[in-house]
Structure formats: structure tokens, C-alpha cells
């Protein structure tokens, strides 16, 4: 059985652009469209990786922020205790 390439239906304006690029570059329309599709696929993978990094960074920042809040609360509690002992003394 012969392998078939899926057909893509392009917007007429986009098709005009691909035709113009084909005339200027001398490459076939299919080569230009294939290159664009590969670029978009790579961009999606890159965007996905960047989203994963951003989510990981946000999670890390939230954990650090929580620890800073806990340290701040502990410091305030210790200062309150010190002030209370000074007032009693």
C-alpha cells in the first residue's frame, strides 16, 4: 500500500504568500509548507518546555515564599517574647 501525505487546506491569503515565496526561492510549495509546519511543531515543543520551566519556577518560588513567611512569623514571635520578658523584668 502506498504511503500518502496528508493534505492541508490553506487559507487563500496564505496560499498566495506560499506561492510568492515559491516563485522567489525556487522551492516547491510543499517544501515551504513542510518547513513551516516543522518550525511550528518545534515552536510548540519549545513553548511547552518553557511553560514547564515557568511552572516549576513558580512552584519553587511559592515554596521559598512560604519558608520566608514561616521564618518571618518565627522572628515576630521571638521578638514578641523578648518584649514581653523586658516588660515583665
TrEMBL record:
Organism for this UniProt entry: Devosia marina
Q: Please identify the protein, giving its name as recorded.
A: Ribbon-helix-helix protein, CopG family
Task: Give a GO biological-process term.
Answer: regulation of DNA-templated transcription
Question: Taxonomically, which superkingdom?
Answer: Bacteria
Amino acid at each position: 500500500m502506498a504511503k500518502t501525505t496528508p493534505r492541508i487546506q490553506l487559507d487563500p491569503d496564505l496560499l498566495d504568500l506560499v506561492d510568492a515565496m515559491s516563485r522567489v526561492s525556487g522551492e516547491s510549495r510543499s517544501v515551504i509548507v513542510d518547513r513551516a509546519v516543522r518550525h511550528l511543531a518545534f515552536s510548540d515543543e519549545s513553548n511547552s518546555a518553557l511553560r514547564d520551566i515557568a511552572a516549576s519556577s513558580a512552584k519553587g518560588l511559592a515554596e521559598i515564599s512560604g519558608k520566608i513567611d514561616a521564618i518571618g512569623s518565627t522572628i515576630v514571635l521571638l521578638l514578641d517574647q523578648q518584649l514581653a520578658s523586658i516588660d515583665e523584668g
